[in-house]
Write a structure and sequence with these properties.
Order of helices and strands: HHEEEHEEEHHHHHHHHHH
Distance between the termini: 26 Å
Shape: elongated
Organism: Deinococcus terrestris
Strand content: 5-15%
Number of helices: 13
Low-confidence stretches: 343-354
Number of strands: 6
CATH topology of the largest domain: Hypothetical protein af1432
Protein name: HD domain-containing protein
InterPro entries: Cyclic_di-GMP/3'3'-cGAMP_PDE (IPR052020), GAF (IPR003018), GAF-like_dom_sf (IPR029016), HD/PDEase_dom (IPR003607), HD_GYP_dom (IPR037522), HDIG_dom (IPR006675)
CATH class of the largest domain: Mainly Alpha
Largest sheet: 6 strands, antiparallel
Amino acid sequence: MLDLSRSLLAAASGAEVEATLTRQSVALLDTRSSAFLRYLPDPDVLRVTAEAGAHAGDLGLTLARGQGASWRAALSEAPLLHLRRGEAPPWVVRAPGVPPVHSLFAPLRSPSGRLLGVLTVGREDPPFSPRDEELLVTFANAGTVTLQRTYETARAAATREGALLALGLALEARDYETQGHTGRTVALAGRLGRALGLDEAAQDHLRQGAYLHDIGKLSVSDDILLKPGPLTPEERTQMQHHVLTGEALVRRIPTMPREVLEVVRSHHERWDGTGYPDGLAGEAIPRLARLFSVIDVFDALTHQRPYRAPLSVPGALALLRAEAGQQFDPGVVAAFLTLFADPVGPQAMRGKAGL
């Protein structure tokens, strides 16, 4: 139980919790196999989302309501369903080629009764004892607590994401020409972060910075923000001040990470040191700000603005390539260019058994 508890505490997502439950069930109960079937309210099915042990290969298998022993356990008020080897009720679904086994099915339900999923284990011999039954129910209860924690964390993150998007869209509401800029830069931030192998925290910081990077422009007057021609020196100074205003506004958001503030403040710095507001150069510019600078300029170049027509994607990429080492970090530009190389088709995975 200590091993299981440590593993569950380290899990950062629902998928990691499910993988931990199946892996530890095989190891700690000495079972032949284990699977977790996640409940999906829409379309009201159980789906295998994690498995361990022998005969793995059922990932993605979906059971309609009432199909199989897992659903029988889920719909029962009992904490556990125990099927002994040789028992074959008509509602049991068996995978081809898999020998009959002793099986336990433990549903995971929230305190309010909401079904989260079903944890199942199986082995040929020895039969499961009452102690084994008790342990699997304990595993399921521990998994329920941890899954609820990860779900609440995900819901909080989604709420935060929605709030950040609303802030980004507030600026776009003033300027038709920039509509969609926030969403596009957030999407590009995700792609570039993955291409560069950023860890999950850094990707999250980059995405938050994308949402908030131009929030300071809310303080810029329409006469300047929407001006179709070149800005005067005084107007340019006011426009450039938006990064400092933006940083001050974002700093007021509780627990906002330093890296997000750096994106907001420094995404107009230049690799050659001629940018603003601090004239930073090279690697003195915060890394995520260097990444976002390329994203921001690319999206601006490829979409209509009051002062110029959009460039084609190849034209914008050529300009980024030409500015590598001057305006932009050369390594970031190289990674960004790979996003527009020929895509590789996705590999499909299919389940092949039943539970």
